[in-house]
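Run log // design_07
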């Protein structure tokens, strides 16, 4: 062997050894030790000139890989470049591709652009080489595809990236990373698609989920969450996006990656405020972002995160508060580069404090503000005027002052506002400081000082106020509040009204000061008895509430105003509901608003007679009041005194528990008043109204305890403080009347001219003045119907009843005046009826018959009022008697008046019935222990068809209501009843004389009237009807029944259709039944027809407390119900049953107003009702809301609209029997030409004799004129059908 061959052989062996050593390293470990790699590299480099060419390539390839693993990337790149050139020369396309790919992979971390370019060439060569690249080498191609795809994603070439990434297996890269980039590319490509976008996004989401499930390293996990959230944003699934970002934030928090946590909370908050509009949640997220930012160690990263979170937090708070947060100035865009890190931290703490306050965390918020102030307080002297830093310091101090106000720390607040003024940068800011400092003075009881401060500000800043309307409105509002606090109601109200005018002219409907102005003005109106103005103001505030943020405290303020408004007009049930809602929400941190809700809830409980609940709530209110707020404690004591007074009255006169409890509760009340007076008289500016009320309360107690001398002294002191408070004056007159009454009782003797009689007359005079004053105040309520009714149901009612007591009592007067007592019975009811008649109709009794301009003429002019009564009874005929009742439920007695005309003279008889004594000794207590309970039980037994029990109840009612006056009405064939309160629900025709075994209807024709004065109005309307019938100016009768489809989803009434046909036949007209009975047709009939008969369902419930008639449903065929057999047990005309009732018994779908005709619609019908007679043959049309005003229902509404008589039902009637009863009624009206009450009697007697139960023969009543006839004329003929 030649030497040359030997050398070659040795070289070949060295190369093989070097290759074998290198390969063994990588077989033993994926990452060999650097020292071993260095040795392998040295061996391979020693064989660098190995031949042949394949062996040379094999050695140099390994050298390149070793360099790569040793981190000598540039050397490795150069080596692969050398190999690439060799492969290219040899035409080894596959190996050339691999060298090129390896270069690209090595360049990734050095030069992404070069890497992308080289990889593109290498992968193109690999594709050209076809099947040359197999095995291990193919994995390098896959790796090249992955890296190139990733780099294309970085350069946003997502479509090409997908071409390289798709189809790769997990060997090409870390599976989590591969799935992330596949998700990224799919997601970005999906945004460019027109069709199949959602499927592409879903594929992207699947890759993101796979990435997250693969548990990648933390940074990649954050990327995957961010990508997933972005895709959900693209899908407009904002809630899901929010959840993903929030999950990432919580993950970062667990791993203590505070920068990532801050950023993800910031993104979460952005989604919540921009896309979801959930500013409350956004505030929480931005707050969490700030908290995380404070933990970041890197100063630059921390500053960036603090600035971003602070800026967005302020923007969100401004959305919630409706303007820039008061505690923070606007942030400069370049703040990060222009201010110190300390100031930046202070601003962030201020933002954090604002968020805490917004979320109700006041103490935490205050701490943040204090920390912020501490940070920059040492630097504040170096801040230049009008700098951001000084402005920031000002607003942080302002925030602390506002919080001190909320905590009731008014002295601290005043000090802080003064500090703010010292650093304020403008005159306007200084004025605001003075305004708020003055307001703080008010709350430490220094109203006079506050007034002086506001007055001084008005002078000092007069020029500024000429142009700056917003601070002018705020200053006027605060000045108005101060004037109210000083008891100057008129000037306070006028000042507040001036501020309100400014704010409304500027259309500032989201301003906090507007809400404060409304609340203060509202309180002023209530205090000044301007109840109408108070209600109108509450309505105005309600109208703009939707302009405030949903979570704004102003909703709380309006609810409070609504509750006070309801309470002001004695609508206590509604007030309790409103205040309970407010108390249960506990959504307001202002102790005064909380006190307002709880205190007024206690007041409402007190007025409802729920005394234990009232005392409990007063105790809760007491605990809320700061110790220095003495006036509030005085008010609570006065209210507690009133509870004990009412409790004492109830114990003695209603429960009749004895004198000990009575004296004990009165003693407690007296002491509470005494404590309140002690507090009030020590104040520098006492509440004079409260003092007057307290002294009046003590006077009332002393009257009860029969100590007139002391009572008179207390009453005199009350008058000194009452001033111009007219409601209080009216009440004091009522108390004075009771005092005179007591003195008359204690005075011996009864001779003419003696002191007893004089005192009795003085009591009458005071009571009359009190009544007139109450009536005057009632007129100022204008058209607030519920307020009219509720006011009459309160103390005003007792004044009218007490007047009857004084006039009818024989104890103190030589001759009781029953006629005058009757006048006051009349004056105590139907007041709203005549007020509305004066507004709605020009032919009412006030203007047409009496010709009086004074709306209170009936109250003031006894002679004219007597003439009204006389005219009414004269128009009834000589065979008629009017029986009017006054039911004093709380006092437990009944007054009965019998009105007759005897020898052309008006005659009034009177009987007193002591109900408490009767029910205490009544052996039939099972029917009820009070009159109200007896009426309710009797009606219930009638409806259940339990005639034996029903007749027992009816016989007791006969004993109470008829026996005492039978001697006066025995000779009358017609009795017209004017019931009061719950007596309106009594079926008078069915009252039963158990001795003679006869119902009243068997002895008398029976009519019902709301009042005698209302009867006279009905006669006036009857005259117009009769004239129209004779002249032929009225349209033909209108008969309609069984609308189809029946409204509110109720079942149709087969008997109603038959009834309509029967009545129409009697009146010679064609009825409108089924599809023809529309609501419009019914309204037109009411306006124009001479007689109206409506046969349908009737409802009375919480939705329609005054009743409603069911009209046609949504449309023909919609919701049409299958007809039911008229004889079935379910044929009641109120077939509401389970189909219409919810668990609470309230009718569902109550908003379907087109499907009902309500009492309110009837009463205010444009043009009124021209018909003489209206028949409402439907369930419960004679029911409604019982009140002192009268029964508020459909019957009253029909009379108010112009009819002279209306036929109603007293309960849920039977379809079939009602058809027969109404048909019989019209038979006697038309064929026999009988009056309405006689026709009713005849129809009832016919059914009674047939043996049917009371429920079937006694449901009808005729309300209004008892003498109405259907006058025969040419209009009553078959021609009507032409």
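design_07 sequence
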């Amino acid at each position: 062997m030649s030497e040359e061959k030997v050398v070659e052989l040795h070289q070949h062996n060295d190369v093989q050894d070097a290759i074998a050593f290198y390969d063994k390293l990588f077989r033993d470990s994926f990452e060999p030790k650097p020292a071993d790699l260095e040795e392998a590299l040295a061996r391979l480099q020693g064989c660098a000139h190995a031949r042949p060419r394949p062996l040379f390539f094999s050695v140099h390839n390994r050298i390149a890989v070793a360099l790569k693993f040793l981190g000598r990337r540039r050397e490795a790149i150069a080596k692969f470049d050398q190999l690439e050139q060799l492969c290219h020369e040899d035409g080894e396309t596959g190996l050339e591709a691999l060298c090129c790919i390896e270069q690209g992979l090595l360049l990734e971390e050095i030069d992404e652009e070069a890497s992308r370019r080289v990889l593109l060439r290498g992968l193109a060569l690999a594709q050209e080489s076809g099947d040359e690249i197999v095995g291990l080498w193919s994995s390098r191609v896959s790796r090249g595809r992955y890296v190139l795809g990733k780099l294309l994603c970085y350069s946003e070439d997502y479509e090409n990236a997908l071409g390289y990434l798709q189809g790769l297996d997990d060997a090409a890269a870390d599976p989590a990373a591969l799935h992330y980039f596949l998700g990224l590319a799919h997601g970005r490509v999906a945004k460019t698609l027109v069709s199949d976008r959602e499927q592409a996004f879903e594929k992207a989401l699947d890759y993101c989920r796979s990435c997250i499930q693969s548990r990648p390293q933390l940074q990649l996990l954050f990327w995957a969450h961010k990508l997933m959230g972005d895709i959900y944003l693209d899908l407009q699934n904002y809630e899901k996006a929010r959840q993903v970002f929030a999950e990432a934030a919580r993950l970062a928090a667990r791993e203590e990656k505070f920068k990532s946590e801050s950023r993800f909370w910031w993104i979460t908050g952005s989604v919540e405020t921009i896309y979801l509009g959930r500013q409350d949640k956004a505030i929480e997220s931005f707050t969490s972002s700030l908290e995380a930012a404070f933990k970041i160690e890197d100063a630059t990263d921390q500053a960036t995160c603090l600035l971003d979170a602070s800026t967005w937090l302020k923007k969100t708070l401004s959305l919630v508060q409706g303007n820039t947060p008061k505690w923070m100035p606007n942030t400069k865009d370049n703040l990060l580069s222009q201010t110190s890190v300390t100031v930046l931290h202070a601003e962030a703490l201020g933002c954090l404090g604002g968020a805490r306050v917004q979320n109700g965390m006041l103490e935490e918020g205050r701490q943040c503000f204090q920390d912020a102030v501490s940070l920059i307080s040492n630097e504040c002297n170096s801040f230049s005027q009008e700098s951001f830093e000084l402005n920031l310091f000002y607003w942080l101090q302002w925030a602390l002052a506002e919080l001190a106000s909320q905590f009731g720390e008014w002295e601290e607040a005043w000090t802080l506002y003064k500090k703010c003024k010292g650093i304020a940068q403008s005159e306007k800011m200084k004025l605001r400081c003075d305004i708020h400092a003055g307001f703080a003075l008010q709350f430490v009881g220094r109203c006079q000082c506050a007034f002086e401060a506001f007055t001084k500000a008005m002078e000092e800043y007069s020029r500024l106020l000429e142009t700056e309307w917003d601070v002018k409105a705020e200053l006027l509002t605060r000045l108005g509040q101060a004037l109210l606090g000083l008891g100057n109601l008129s000037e306070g109200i006028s000042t507040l009204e001036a501020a309100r005018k400014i704010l409304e002219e500027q259309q500032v409907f989201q301003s906090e000061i507007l809400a404060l102005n409304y609340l203060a003005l509202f309180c002023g109106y209530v205090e000044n008895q301007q109840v109408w103005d108070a209600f109108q103001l509450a309505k105005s505030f309600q109208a703009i509430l939707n302009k405030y943020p949903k979570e704004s405290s102003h909703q709380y303020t309006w609810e409070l105003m609504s509750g006070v408004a309801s309470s002001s007009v004695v609508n206590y049930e509604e007030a309790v509901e409103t205040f309970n809602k407010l108390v249960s929400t506990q959504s307001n941190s202002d102790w005064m608003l909380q006190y307002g809700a709880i205190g007024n809830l206690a007041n409402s409980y007190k007025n409802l007679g729920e005394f234990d609940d009232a005392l409990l709530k007063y105790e809760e209110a007491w605990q809320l009041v700061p110790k220095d707020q003495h006036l509030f404690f005085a008010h609570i004591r006065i209210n507690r005194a009133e509870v004990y007074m009412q409790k004492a009255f109830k114990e003695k006169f209603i429960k009749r528990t004895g004198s000990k409890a009575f004296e004990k509760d009165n003693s407690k009340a007296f002491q509470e008043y005494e404590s309140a007076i002690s507090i009030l008289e020590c104040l520098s500016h006492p509440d004079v109204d409260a003092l007057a009320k307290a002294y009046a309360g003590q006077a009332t107690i002393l009257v009860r305890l029969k100590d007139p001398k002391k009572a008179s002294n207390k009453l005199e002191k009350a008058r000194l403080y009452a001033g111009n408070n007219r409601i209080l004056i009216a009440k004091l007159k009522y108390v004075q009347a009771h005092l005179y009454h007591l003195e008359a009782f204690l005075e011996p003797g009864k001779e003419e001219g003696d002191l007893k009689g004089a005192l009795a007359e003085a009591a009458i005079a005071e009571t009359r003045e009190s009544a007139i004053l109450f009536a005057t105040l009632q007129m100022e309520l204008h058209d607030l119907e519920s307020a009219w009714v509720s006011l009459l149901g309160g103390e005003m009612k007792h004044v009218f009843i007490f007047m009857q007591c004084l006039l009818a009592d024989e104890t103190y007067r030589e001759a009781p005046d029953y006629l005058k007592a009757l006048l006051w019975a009349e004056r105590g009811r139907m007041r709203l009826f005549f007020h509305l008649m004066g507004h709605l109709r020009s032919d009412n009794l006030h203007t047409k018959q009496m010709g009086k301009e004074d709306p209170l003429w009936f109250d003031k002019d006894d002679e004219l009022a007597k003439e009204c009564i006389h005219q009414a009874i004269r128009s009834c005929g000589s065979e008629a008697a009017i029986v009017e009742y006054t039911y004093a439920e709380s006092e437990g007695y009944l007054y009965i008046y019998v009105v007759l005309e005897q020898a052309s003279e008006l005659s009034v008889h009177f009987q007193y019935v002591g109900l408490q004594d009767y029910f205490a000794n009544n052996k039939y207590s099972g029917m009820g222990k009070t009159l109200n309970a007896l009426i309710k039980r009797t009606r219930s037994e009638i409806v259940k068809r339990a005639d034996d029990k029903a007749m027992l109840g009816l016989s007791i009612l006969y004993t109470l209501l008829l026996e005492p006056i039978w001697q006066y009405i025995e000779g009358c064939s017609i009795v017209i009843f004017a019931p009061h309160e719950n007596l309106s629900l009594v079926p008078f025709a069915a009252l039963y004389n158990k001795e003679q075994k006869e119902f009243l209807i068997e002895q008398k024709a029976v009519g019902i009237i709301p009042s005698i004065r209302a009867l006279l109005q009905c006669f006036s309307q009857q005259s117009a009807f009769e004239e129209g019938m004779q002249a032929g100016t009225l349209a033909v009768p209108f008969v309609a029944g069984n609308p189809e489809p029946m409204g509110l989803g109720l079942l149709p009434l087969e008997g109603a259709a038959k009834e309509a046909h029967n009545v129409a036949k009697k009146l010679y007209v064609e009825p409108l039944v089924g599809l023809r009975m529309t609501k419009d047709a019914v309204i037109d009939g009411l306006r124009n027809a001479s007689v109206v008969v409506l046969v349908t369902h009737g409802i009375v419930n919480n939705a329609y407390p005054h009743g409603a008639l069911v009209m046609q449903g949504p449309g023909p065929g919609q919701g049409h119900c299958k007809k039911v057999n008229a004889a079935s047990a379910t044929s009641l005309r109120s077939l509401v049953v389970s189909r219409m009732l919810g668990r609470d018994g309230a009718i569902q779908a109550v908003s379907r107003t087109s499907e009902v005709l309500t009492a309110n619609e009837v009463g205010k019908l444009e043009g009124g009702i021209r018909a003489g007679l209206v028949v409402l043959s439907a369930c419960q049309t004679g029911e409604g809301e019982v009140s002192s005003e009268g029964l508020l229902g459909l019957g009253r509404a029909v009379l108010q609209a112009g009819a002279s008589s209306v036929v109603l039902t007293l309960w849920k009637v039977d379809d079939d029997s009602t058809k027969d009863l109404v048909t019989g009624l019209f038979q006697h009206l038309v064929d026999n030409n009988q009056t309405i009450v006689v026709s009713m009697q005849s129809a009832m007697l016919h059914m009674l004799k047939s043996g049917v139960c009371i429920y079937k023969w006694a449901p009808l009543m005729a309300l209004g004129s008892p003498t109405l006839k259907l006058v025969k004329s040419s209009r009553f003929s078959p021609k009507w059908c032409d």
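The longest strand covers residues 893-902.
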